[in-house]
Amino acid sequence: MERATAPTAPDAADRGARADFGDQADRAAGAGPASRPRSPALVRFYRRYATVLHTICTLILGAVIWQVVAWHSSKLVLVPLGDILHAFTASIRSGQLGTDAAASLQGFAEGFVLAAAAGIAVGVLMAVNRVIFDFLDPWMSALYSTPLIALAPLFIITFGIGMTSRIAVVLTMAFFPIALNTTAGIRMTDANLIETAHSYGANKFQIFRKVLLPSAVPFIVTGLRLAVGRGLMGVVVAEFFGSTTGLGHTVFTASQNFATADVWLGVFVLAVIGVVFIRIMHIIEKKIAPWRNSRQGGIL
Amino acid sequence: MNVVDVAEPKLARAVPKLEARGLYKQFYRGSSRMDALYDVNLVIQPGEFVAVLGASGCGKTTLLRIIDGLEQATGGELLIDGNASRGTGVDRGFVFQQDNLLPWRNVLRNVMFGLELQRRPRAETKAQAMQYIDMVGLSGFEKHYPHELSGGMRQRVNLARAFTISPDVLLMDEPFAALDAQTREVMQTELLRIWRQAAGGRTVVFVTHQIDEAIFLADRIVVMTARPGRIKEVIDVPFPRPRDLHIKRTAEFGEIYDSIWKTIEQEVRVSMGMSTS
């Protein structure tokens, strides 16, 4: 039985036959063979920072359009950016903006964390247990597509004016996209990967922990991203009716006093909060799901 | 083959590694029944490299899945080391046709997967994994993710993952079928080298539909009939080991190839629904 013997000379010959390593390195180096003429410096700068440059351009373009439209429309609807900037500095100085933003952020963050925990938990249960899925799915689908925001006044009646009702509305709004995406993500796990884990002797818990959950991460993050927008909507509406502080409350009172610049200031701050949270989700996704980096730039 | 044969003292090796006794497998779809395996009897000794050759859809994969425990036989018995098999186990490693690597794990962590499931100490798991990554020639690629590798490299990782759990039996389901012809030839040579290097003289059951692959790799070739799969013929391959690709150009190789092709052509025609005349 020769197969029990130690590796001998033919191994060296076998090693020589490894041909398929090169293509990886080639692909990586494919961007610029030495023979190709170098592009002008400006073109290279543009290629390198294209996305940043595009973002700056579109922001400037947006500001220009805003100003042009603002000159031609009622000051009750659109005010020039200068007025909003003025409102911003005034509000910072008085401390109003800080207080509002802190109150809204706290309500949003607490509601969002609760929604994430509950949404992922319920989503997992629905994905792994058929009975739970069958019982919950009709309600989940119905409630997800219902504009639950209409129920905000009822939450305020129930939880009173203040932080609790805010958190409750955010939780209600943010919960459904997280739960539904978690379920979808786990259910879409490649069956071949599950079978591979089975064949390696994985038990149910290991299959969940090491296959289903990691495979669902990109879906869960997508759910969290959708939940950011809905959660912010929730905090604002809750503050419209059931609060004496917060960005939503200030926007609401400002609009009733025809202080349009203050209305837009509140909206801009909310937009920035939304963008920041979505960026955070992106960063988390890149950290825990680096294999799922979505394509940079255009597909065609 | 019946039970008495196994007990006969003249068989030097006391207990076969694997033994299929009258295996049947039926699949049901709605009310229709499909026979995948029909009375399959097979004895495989420890350390043997056996290729299972057959037309597509002949049930060769089903046989492999039953051996692994991923599938239950409808009838008959499967013995491993003389004991009836119960489900999957770490004594058997399965190499799937697709590499089935976990996309969120890099090469090292993919190779560690099997031992990790057995809750071995991390240091030991890592050392084992590194050893087999080196053996499949992927040192330096430990931190790469599957999507950064070529098909041939991914299949090497797949092999390393299976070898790392040190299974007594390696079950391979057309592992090179998805690779291009040249990469496949290289991988066949590589497989024999790794198999030789890996300690313990493991038993391999290698399912393929390629005659030359079967001859090149195996000690014995089991030719299966078209559905329902039965064993039509078992052929001993006379080439000594270690083998290299040159044996594929020899006249003897050609003769074996032709004789197997004659056996199998008829089955291929049946599986294609053509006449056998």
UniProtKB/TrEMBL annotation, chain B:
Pfam families: ABC_tran. GO terms for molecular function: ATP binding; ATP hydrolysis activity. SUPFAM superfamilies: P-loop containing nucleoside triphosphate hydrolases (SSF52540). PROSITE patterns: ABC_TRANSPORTER_1, ABC_TRANSPORTER_2. CDD domains: ABC_NrtD_SsuB_transporters (cd03293). PANTHER family: ALIPHATIC SULFONATES IMPORT ATP-BINDING PROTEIN SSUB (PTHR42788:SF13), TAURINE IMPORT ATP-BINDING PROTEIN-RELATED (PTHR42788). This is Nitrate ABC transporter ATP-binding protein. It comes from Rugosimonospora africana. The lineage of its organism: Bacteria, Bacillati, Actinomycetota, Actinomycetes, Micromonosporales.
